[in-house]
Amino acid sequence: MKSLIPGVLRDEPQFARLFVGQSLSVLGDRVSFVAVPFAVLSVGGSASDVGLVAAAGLLPMLLFTLVGGVWADRFRRHRIMLISDVVRFGVQALLAGLLLAGVAEVPHLVLLMIVFGTADAFFMPAATGLMPLVVRPDRLREANALRGFVQSSGLVLGPALAGGLVALAGPGGALALDALTFGVSAAFLARLKPREAASETVRAAAGGNFLGELREGWAQVRSRSWLWSGMAAMAVYHVVVLPSVFVLGPVLAEHEWGGAASWSVVVAAFGVGSIVGDVCAYRLKVARPMALAAAALAVASCQAIIIGSGASLALIAFLEAVTGVAVSLFFVLWETALQTHVPEAALSRVSSYDYLLSAGLMPLGLTLAGPVSESFGVRPTLYAMTVVAVPAALALLCVPAVRRLPAHGPGTPHDRGGVRPAAEAGLP
């Protein structure tokens, strides 16, 4: 039985504690991913309203992500995550209650998603910076690949669970489960005891100068062409491609595919592909990881044309599974590069710029996707998304620093028995 438990969970008790709580939270997130768009539609919302609610959850990234990055490099990261989980528990519980009571309206959903997104903006940089504090450097690859596997598995289990919950208890029942998982995650974070961050020992020297710390984080980004070019390519992916998943995909499913159950099949297929991608990322030893990441991003950027292809549901699901492999590969390799080549003391600030230039700009695409599709048609909009996104990903491959970036940073231990530093995959 002991051999069935991954070694990193046995050897790293703090990571094991984090892993269990976050795994349950991931399941809730995947349920919410399906439930929220149909919650908007269930209260009479339009395609534009679906985009508006999704954008409301991401808009706070523009305002608070950089603050969250500085705070996460300055204060205890797991405590920031704990507060964020408590806030998101309250938001999802209230939203579920409004929906189950039949009194929810689109403005309620918009307001609550703004609060949810604000808590998210502080959670994400802290979570990125926390991993090196609960796992030894030579076990990071195992730990982060395991987390990526759970996130991808959630894409399979979550939508299936969400489809059943939406059918039986409505979107409110599905969101009630999400609220519960945030409560469980908070309970595990309350017991977490990570080691002291390097930034905690030097923050006094910075004098608490917020702008100075922010500039230091940007200097880390600006000095690495692979980093800022990768962020630019991801911004295009989040602004142009992902609205096809968050907005136009559910709309097509509602009008042409039979509703939430059919969309759940597509999302679950993507999750299966993501699992395969995580396994590949776990086993592959790549000398130039960012080159492969750029190629994977080009494949991932085909999601819009796949959704709008008019093919059978089975073929769309299969092709989305292929893009799931690519998405997991990209994010594993990207997060690996961050953790390997960016100093831990600046990691949360660098990741906050990452989130700002990707997920933070995503509300622009989410807000425009509905009105543009209503003016020009859903499928022409999806085709146009692909024409923009795929060349942008291929341009990343043309950056010399991207093609040449090694797997190991200065002072990073090389593989020992197949173990190398890496990081987790995540779906924006």
Key words describing this protein structure:
mainly alpha; 19 helices; single chain; Growth Hormone, Chain: A
Commentary on this structure:
Residues 409-428 are annotated as: Disordered. The chain crosses the membrane at residues 50-70, 146-168, 225-248, 260-282, 289-307, 313-334, 355-376, 382-402. This protein has helices at residues 7-11, 13-42, 47-58, 60-74, 77-101, 106-134, 140-190, 198-206, 210-222, 225-241, 243-257, 260-283, 289-300, 303-307, 313-341, 347-357, 362-376, 378-397, 400-404. It contains 19 helices and no strands. The model is unreliable at 412-428 (pLDDT under 50). Helix 2 (13-42) crosses helix 7. The protein has a single domain (2-193, 209-404), classed as MFS general substrate transporter like domains (Growth Hormone, Chain: A, Up-down Bundle), CATH 1.20.1250. Helices cover 80% and strands 0% of the residues.
Under CATH, the homologous superfamily reads MFS general substrate transporter like domains
H/I helix tally: 19
CATH class reads Mainly Alpha
Instruction: Determine the fraction of residues in helical runs and give it as a percent range.
Output: over 70%
**Topology as a string of helices (H) and strands (E):** HHHHHHHHHHHHHHHHHHH
The proportion of residues in beta strands is under 5%
The unreliable regions are 412-428
Report the radius of gyration as a whole number of Å: 20 Å
The average pLDDT score comes to 82
Give the biggest beta sheet: none
Task: State the end-to-end distance.
Answer: 35 Å
Pfam family, one: MFS_3
Membrane topology: Multi-pass membrane protein
Keywords: Cell membrane, Membrane, Transmembrane, Transmembrane helix, Transport
Organism: Streptomyces albidochromogenes
